[in-house]
Design goal:
The chain has ten helices and 15 strands. It is α/β, with parallel strands linked by helices and about 350 residues long. Helix 7 runs parallel beside helix 8. The radius of gyration is 19 Å and the shape is globular.
């Protein structure tokens, strides 16, 4: 096996192809633990919003003990832009020592200008790049109404990218994270995954909205500031219940975003489809796979589907930093026979 097969030319920096996902690291202490790991590439912190958010109250995260899924309605807890302005420069420094990890800052605005301001703040603090979270399903207004998920609205996504591009320029490294819930094909794959994992009767679709993946891709291709797309975020508006029918979560009627192993085929399908759409386009948009990744074979599957790298979320939250060592060693063993 060539050592280089584990690595990626990440806009001029040699990095491991495996990274964490947004929502797993928010502050310097968590970052410190991860930055000593040689088996993780870029590190993603956030998502951060302009105003501080305490997150949603009550039971807002539940991991299936059998490892099939997780469900959360965290609501983007973070300390806000003023905290970021003070803390991000130090976090950038932490991520560089003792091993250099490019720091990617995930941001979530509630209007285009907030996205632009947060992206500018992150890059001004020395971040390597910015991830625009356009797909969080777990933010609610004071009256209990779910806030818009930007990627479901092409015009809004376009306005966000236009504002960001105008503020930070086309050459900045910006990713966009999108939802898995783009059409009936994706829902069918999720229903099959639920059936295959004996989750029918435990996982329910409370409501389903879709967006056009092809339409989203064309919006991204119109903005040169977009260097990559992350697919996928959690599946929105899912109700998970226990054996008595009681919701696993307590906020928002128990509805949250579904992640973990059951999203693997959904993430792979979206990766394949985007890879075909982006093929041979003048504006190159890379793909970062996310969803159901917990071992080396999962990484290989995403790379074969067209991803340049992957993000790990639920497995990292449940197993800790050691999951990156496990995945990378497994990946090293598989690369020779898989490509």
């Amino acid at each position: 096996m060539k050592e280089e097969d584990l690595y990626l030319d990440f806009w001029g920096v040699k990095v491991i192809k495996v990274m964490n996902a947004a929502g797993t690291i928010r502050g310097p202490e968590e970052l410190q633990e991860l930055t000593i790991c040689e088996s993780v590439g870029p590190i993603v912190v956030g998502s951060y919003t302009k105003e501080p958010r305490t997150g949603n109250p009550g039971q807002v995260y539940w991991p299936d003990p059998l490892g099939r899924y997780s469900v959360n309605v965290n609501g983007l807890p973070n300390l806000g832009a003023d905290w970021c302005k003070k803390s991000l420069p130090g976090m950038v420094k932490i991520a560089r020592e003792p091993i250099y990890h490019p720091l990617i800052v995930s941001v979530a605005g509630f209007n285009p200008q907030e996205y632009a301001e947060l992206a500018d703040l992150a890059l001004g603090a020395g971040a390597f790049g910015v991830e625009l979270n356009l797909s969080c399903p777990n933010v609610y207004s004071a009256d209990g109404q779910q806030k818009k998920i930007p990627c479901f609205y092409p015009n809004l996504t376009n306005e966000i990218l236009t504002a960001v591009e105008k503020t930070i320029g086309r050459d900045a490294i910006v990713w966009v994270k999108i939802s898995p819930c783009c059409d009936l094909q994706q829902k069918a794959l999720l229903m099959k995954a639920l059936s295959d994992n004996n989750l029918v009767g435990e996982i329910y679709f409370e409501s389903v909205i879709y967006y056009s993946l092809e339409g989203m891709a064309e919006v991204l291709l119109d903005h040169k500031v977009v260097k990559a797309v992350v697919c996928v975020n959690t599946w929105p508006n899912i109700l998970a219940v226990d054996e008595t029918g009681k919701s696993r979560l307590t906020f928002a009627g128990g509805v949250g975003g579904l992640g973990g192993f059951v999203l693997k085929e959904i993430g792979l399908n979206q990766t394949r489809r985007l890879s075909q759409i982006f093929k041979d386009r003048i504006h190159k948009v890379d793909i970062i796979g996310c969803g159901g990744i917990s071992n080396g074979q999962d990484v290989v599957d995403y790379l074969k589907a067209g991803a340049m790298a992957v993000q790990v979320d639920t497995a990292f939250l449940e197993k800790g930093v050691r999951v990156f060592d496990d995945i990378t060693w497994q990946l090293a063993d598989l690369i020779d026979t898989s490509f």
